[in-house]
Amino acid sequence: MTPKKSLLLDEIIREYLKQQEPIGSESLRLSLNIKISSATIRNHFKTLVEEGALAQPHVSSGRIPTELALKNYWRKKLLPLEMLEFESLKKIEQSARETGIFCALRFYKPNFLQEVVSVGTRFLVLGFEEGEAVVKYSGAMERFLGELVGLEIRDIRKIAYQVCAHELATKLDHLLEGEPVLTFGLKELAELLQPSREGERLFHDISKGKWLDTLEEGLYFDRFIPRGALAFIQQIRVEKSAAKLMFMGSLNRNYEAFYQEALA
C-alpha cells in the first residue's frame, strides 16, 4: 500500500471510530488537511475495497474499515513501550465507561525472591521480601528455583506457568491473592463474551484478574479473544503507584480517545 493510500485509510478509520457510522467521500474530504477531490477519494475507496481494507454495508452508504484494517491500525497505535502516568483513577473509570470498554487494573508492590531454603528432602521454602511459599522438594526444583533468586514474584509465576510447574504457580497465586483487582465495565465484558461457548469461564478469569497475572504486556486478538474484539495489557502508574492495566472491547471502540480522556 502506498504511503498516500495508507494515510487516507488511517484517516477513514479515525473518522469511523469517532462517528461510528459509514464514512462518505465528501465528509472525509472535509476532515482532511490536504487538498483532494471527492472523486479522487472515491477512486481510493474502490481500490481499498478491492484490497479488503474497506467494506460497503449498503449500496448507497459510505465505507467502513474491515476487521483486518482495524487490527492493523491498532497494531500501529497500541504499543506497551511507554510507562504512562495517570493522575486519577477516576478518570480511567470515566473514560472506560464513555468509550464502552471493559477495564481491569491491579496495583502492586514489587516483591522479590530473596532465598530458597531446603527443609531436609521434604520441602523447599521460597523466602520473598514479603511472605513465603512452600513446595515439595526435588533436586531439580531446588536447582530451578536457585536460578530464580532475585526475580520478582510475578515474573517467577509467569515462568512457572510456562514450564508447567503447576504446584509452584498455584502457591504463588495464593501468595498474591491479597492484591485487589479493580474493574470497570463488567456489563460490556459480559456482552462481549456472550457469543463464546466458554463465556462464563472467561468472564470469571478476566474479571478476577487471571489474565492480568498470566499474560505478557501487549496487544491480543483472535486466539482466545472473541472475534471482532481486542485486549491490551501494559504497565502504568496511577496517582504515583505502580499498576498493571488491561482493557478489552470491540475493535471499533475508540481507544485513542480513551487514552486522551484518561490522561487529560
From TrEMBL:
* Transmembrane stretches, start-end: none
| Entry-linked InterPro entries | HrcA, WH-like_DNA-bd_sf, WH_DNA-bd_sf
List UniProt keywords, sorted A-Z: Repressor, Stress response, Transcription, Transcription regulation
What processes in GO biological process is this protein linked to? negative regulation of DNA-templated transcription
Q: Under the GO molecular function aspect, what terms does this record hold?
A: DNA binding
Q: Where is the signal peptide?
A: none
Q: Does the keyword Cell cycle apply?
A: no
Q: Does the keyword Transcription regulation apply?
A: yes
What is the protein's given name? Heat-inducible transcription repressor HrcA
The organism encoding this protein is: Wolinella succinogenes (strain ATCC 29543 / DSM 1740 / CCUG 13145 / JCM 31913 / LMG 7466 / NCTC 11488 / FDC 602W) (Vibrio succinogenes)
